[in-house]
Amino acid sequence: MGPGIEKVEALDEGHFIRVEWEDGRESRYPCVWLRDNCQCPLCFLPSAAARRLLFEDLDVDIVVKEVAVADRKKISITWPDEHASEYEAEWLKKRCFSEEARAEMQADLFLPECQYWGSDLQLPKIPFEEVMYNDESAYKWLCALKKVGIVLLTGAATRQGELIKLGHRIGFLRLTFYGPTWQVQDKADANNVAYTNGKLCFHTDYPVLHHPPGVQFLHCIKQTAAGGESEVVDGFHVSNKLKKQNPEAYQILSSTAVDYTDVGMDYCDFAVHCKQRIIDIDSRGQAVRINYNNATRDTVFDIPVEKVRPFYAALKEFNDLLNSPEHKFTYKLKPGDIVTFDNWRLLHGRQSYPSGSEVTRHLEGAYADWDVVMSRLRLLRKRVLKRD
Question: Are 379 and 131 in contact (CB under 8 A)?
């Protein structure tokens, strides 16, 4: 049974509607918002779930003419121009403007719960085939990816193309200057430090793009016998540590625009330049994205000379925290493993490995945007949990 309406009345000379629910709670709705969100066929297109009402036709000072309850399950409103609107009780209740209701709706839409970790990470693992062909497993995968930031898919075929399939499973992959997918292996005249056999320090991929890829996939096709271990660290967890330990360093890294560059030839020729803050924060000062890649940090640095050394000191402290044994988790991919992780939150690295006369280590990589991943997650949740 959905929520029932006990009583409805106009307040503030008709600028607000107050709804009293059967459970004794109440909600207040501004009339301008109600008129803006009229669900009738003239104002709303159900097939697109989109508003038809033009903003220039909206009176921001509108007041209600008449309001009534219909069967305790909806309210009906007549506006001064005699336009009639109806609003279902359940629809209204979900959109209540109370702090509690707004927080509940935001949590339902964006799943902000975050499970922080360090070297104690219990790496979630799910068989690749289950994710591909079972909705419950795919939903479990994406929920863990959002909450923990990393999930290992096991048992994929050891050939190129498996990530293309995974991309189709969520929707589509992100095309970049390195192609729809890219091959991580030791290459002559490498156009990226990842395409060498050297150690890769902790980094996020592609901060040189204004909108870096949100999710990264790495499929192990061939693994070297010695070396080549993967390392990950929870950037949000470490950022919180830095904020407590050295608020000034946190402030510097979350406010200084750092120049990044990537120039070369791969899928096509490219010359990319961008400015990013190492720690992107929201209005509450909470980290929402890490943009740190020492390899592509530019020699150009567009800040006053006296601020350069304090920036380096702040970045050194952050980097030291990233590399602290208590924060980093080390594992070694096996052929057929696909590691999927949050590129806005996790920083990843790799230990060096010996070079050989032939390719000894081969990973295929791909990206996806969080918009695509979250879209699939919501659709799977609706299907699996049978929610409206």
Answer: no
Alpha carbon distance 354, 171 (integer Å)? 37
**How many whole angstroms separate alpha carbon 259 and alpha carbon 245?**
26
Long-range contacts of 4-7 (CB under 8 A, 24+ apart): 4/72, 4/73, 4/89, 5/69, 5/72, 5/73, 5/74, 5/75, 5/89, 6/72, 7/69
Q: For residue 297, what is the DSSP state? A: B
Same domain, 301 and 241: yes
> Do 207 and 130 belong together in one domain?
yes
- The answer to whether 327 and 225 have CB atoms below 8 angstroms apart is no
Beta-carbon contacts of residue 351 (< 8 Å; ≥ 6 apart): 199, 227, 228, 229, 230, 231, 330
Are 98 and 152 part of one and the same domain?
A: no
Could you tell me which of 195, 297, 321, 189 has the C-alpha nearest to residue 246? Answer: 321
**What is the pLDDT of the chain when averaged over all its residues?**
97
**In-domain check, residue 50:** yes
| DSSP string for 5-48 | EEEEEEEGGGTEEEEEETTS-EEEEEHHHHHHT--STTTEETTT
What is the per-residue pLDDT for 388?
A: 64
**Strand partners for 85:** 77
The verdict on 50 and 138 lying in the same domain is no
pLDDT in tens, 268-303: 999 999 999 999 999 999 999 999 999 999 999 999
Tokens 């208590």 correspond to what residue?
Answer: 326
Q: What are the phi and psi torsion angles at 33 (to 5°)? A: -70, -40
Q: Is the pLDDT of residue 205 over 80?
A: yes
Q: Does the pLDDT of residue 322 top 80, yes or no?
A: yes
pLDDT digits (tens, 9 = 90+) for 112-129: 999 999 999 999 999 999
**358 found inside a domain:** yes
From residue 79, alpha-carbon distances to 65, 71, 83, 215 in Å are 5, 20, 5, 47
How crowded is residue 316: how many other Cβ atoms within 10 Å of its Cβ? 11
Burial annotation 57-68 (CB, 10 A radius, 16+ → b, else e): eeeeebbbeebe
Report if residue 89 sits inside a domain.
yes
Burial class of 168 by CB neighbour count within 10 A (0 to 12, 13 to 18, 19+): exposed
Q: Report the alpha-carbon distance of residue 313 to residue 335 in Å, rounded.
A: 40
